[in-house]
Automatic annotation (TrEMBL):
<keyword id="KW-0547">Nucleotide-binding</keyword>
<dbReference type="GO" id="GO:0005524">
    <property type="term" value="F:ATP binding"/>
</dbReference>
<feature type="compositionally biased region" description="Basic and acidic residues">
    <location>
        <begin position="461"/>
        <end position="471"/>
    </location>
</feature>
<dbReference type="InterPro" id="IPR003593">
    <property type="entry name" value="AAA+_ATPase"/>
</dbReference>
<keyword id="KW-0805">Transcription regulation</keyword>
<dbReference type="InterPro" id="IPR002078">
    <property type="entry name" value="Sigma_54_int"/>
</dbReference>
<dbReference type="InterPro" id="IPR009057">
    <property type="entry name" value="Homeodomain-like_sf"/>
</dbReference>
<dbReference type="GO" id="GO:0000160">
    <property type="term" value="P:phosphorelay signal transduction system"/>
</dbReference>
<dbReference type="InterPro" id="IPR058031">
    <property type="entry name" value="AAA_lid_NorR"/>
</dbReference>
<dbReference type="Pfam" id="PF25601">
    <property type="entry name" value="AAA_lid_14"/>
</dbReference>
<dbReference type="InterPro" id="IPR001789">
    <property type="entry name" value="Sig_transdc_resp-reg_receiver"/>
</dbReference>
<feature type="domain" description="Response regulatory">
    <location>
        <begin position="6"/>
        <end position="120"/>
    </location>
</feature>
<dbReference type="Pfam" id="PF00072">
    <property type="entry name" value="Response_reg"/>
</dbReference>
<feature type="modified residue" description="4-aspartylphosphate">
    <location>
        <position position="55"/>
    </location>
</feature>
<dbReference type="InterPro" id="IPR025944">
    <property type="entry name" value="Sigma_54_int_dom_CS"/>
</dbReference>
<dbReference type="InterPro" id="IPR011006">
    <property type="entry name" value="CheY-like_superfamily"/>
</dbReference>
<protein>
    <submittedName>
        <fullName>Response regulator</fullName>
    </submittedName>
</protein>
Length: 471
């Protein structure tokens, strides 16, 4: 019976590669091979196996350097090292740094299979994903390696009760990842409760989190349970935790340390059993340096940190996401939409997407709403991308130039291109005004609605040279 687990074997000994491939394949594992560390890294860039087994002695990069690269790029991927007697100290050192195990050549096949079984049972995706069960992460549409690495770590940490801090740009999908962690956790049958800490005024946020008793403040006509109690037994997701006001950070820290909450206006502490996930787009190291975020709360929340890649860092996901959103929205708008024209899809893939997945969804929704044919054309995508383009922040010089040009244009429109009147309104002499017009490439004649045909081309109207004029 074929296993769901795949193993990458790395060794320059072709006979040993064949022998190991036979043994592991016979045990039901899917096996791929590489004869060097460089070839192994190239394979890992395309797809991630369940386990890597590598010889320590390799041409070029050795097995220990390969292990270091794997730890840096795929920290949750287990590695078993194969070593001769002379390299045992190196293998032991690598094991202390995180290698799953090492086996000394010649090794017993039963010992090898035991180690492989242990490693694959702990590997990302082994629990809950065996047989292709990805229901815990069904909302996250991706085939990129960058997201696969994040999801692998998320799957591992989900089995624990550790607090997780999710970092990533706005619109990258931080709440979706938090929901996925909850669904993969032992708390999945209990509530998942989310709150945006930056969207609620400070005076109301405390009540939202911890609840209040009747009469605690004006308008509190009844007692109300807070979100900590609502999420009891489950998961509380604190989105944009970096925007939480400092006074509330103290109360949140106390709740996390004591595992109790005290409703506003109450002296009674209520025990709660809640796993806390948090997220932010802010650099909390900078916030701590500016005394805007408490270090003790940061370390309490940041037991494990997961960093979501931006959409620009996983462009291979854009066609997949765009088609997924198109299918969803076509059903919503009751339209027959089959896909994107090739040049339209190319435009989507090449766009900058500063708003990440949320911005992509908005763009696809716009093209769905305006589409009149089953295939989305480039023109609609270009229109959506233009509408979604963020407002550019200009520097002072550019902003001043833009204002001056707009101001001068308005004056010429008001005076129908009469420079003397426009200069008078601007309280500038006509020579200076002409220089301003010349600087911005504005021609007064073009603003004259009643200019006879041919006059603009012949330079009729204000005939004086704008630079030589002395009046």
């Amino acid at each position: 019976m074929t296993s769901n687990h795949s193993i990458l074997l790395v060794d320059d000994d072709l006979d040993l590669l064949r022998l190991l491939t036979m043994r592991l394949s016979a045990a039901g594992y899917r096996v791929s091979t590489a004869e060097s560390a460089e070839a192994a890294l190239a394979q890992l860039a395309v797809s991630q196996p369940t386990l890597v087994i590598s010889d320590v002695r390799l041409p070029g990069l050795d097995g220990l350097q390969l292990f270091d690269e794997i730890r840096a790029q795929h920290p949750a991927l287990p590695v078993i090292l194969l070593t001769a007697h002379g390299t045992i100290p190196d293998a032991v050192d690598a094991t202390s740094r995180g290698a799953f195990a090492y086996l000394t050549k010649p090794f017993d096949s039963h010992e090898l299979l035991d180690k492989v079984c242990q490693a694959t049972s702990l590997s990302p995706g082994a629990k809950g994903d065996a047989g292709g069960d990805h229901s815990w992460r069904e909302e996250i549409i991706s085939r990129s390696q960058a997201m696969a690495d994040v999801l692998a770590e998320a799957r591992l940490v989900a089995a624990t009760d550790a607090s997780v801090l999710i970092a990533g740009e706005s619109g990258a999908g931080k709440e979706l990842l938090a929901r996925a962690i909850h669904r993969a956790s032992p708390r999945a049958r209990k509530p998942f409760v989310a709150i945006n800490c930056g969207a609620i005024p400070e005076q109301l946020l405390e009540s939202e989190l911890f609840g209040h008793v009747k009469g605690a403040f004006t308008g509190a006509q009844t007692s109300r349970q807070g979100l900590f109690q609502t999420a009891d037994g489950g998961t509380l997701f604190l989105d944009e935790i970096g925007d939480m006001p400092p006074p509330l950070q103290v109360k949140l820290l106390r709740a996390l340390q004591e595992r109790t909450v005290r409703p506003v206006g109450s002296n009674e502490a209520i025990p709660v059993d809640v796993r806390v996930l948090s997220a932010t787009h802010r650099d909390l190291d900078v916030a701590m340096a500016d005394n805007q975020f408490r270090p003790d709360l940061y370390y309490r929340l940041n037991v494990v940190k997961l960093s979501l890649p931006s959409l620009g860092e996983r462009r291979e996901d854009i066609p997949l996401l765009a088609q997924h959103f198109l299918t969803q929205l076509a059903a919503k708008y009751r339209k027959t939409l089959n896909g994107f024209a090739p040049d339209a899809l190319e435009a989507l893939v090449g766009a900058p997407w500063p708003g990440n997945v949320r911005q992509l969804y908005n763009a696809v929704e716009q093209v769905c709403a305006l589409a009149t044919s089953p295939l989305i054309p480039l023109s609609l995508v270009q229109r959506a991308l233009q509408a979604e383009a963020p407002t550019q922040v200009l520097n002072y010089v550019n902003a001043k130039q833009r204002f001056e040009r707009g101001y001068l244009s308005q004056l010429l429109k008001l005076t129908a291109g009469n420079v003397a009147d426009a200069a008078r309104l601007a309280e500038r002499n006509r020579t200076e005004f002409y220089r301003l017009l010349q600087r911005h490439g504005l021609v007064a004649q073009r603003f004259r609605d009643d200019l006879p045909a041919g006059d603009e081309a012949s330079g009729q109207g204000d005939r004086k040279n704008p630079v030589d004029s002395s009046t």
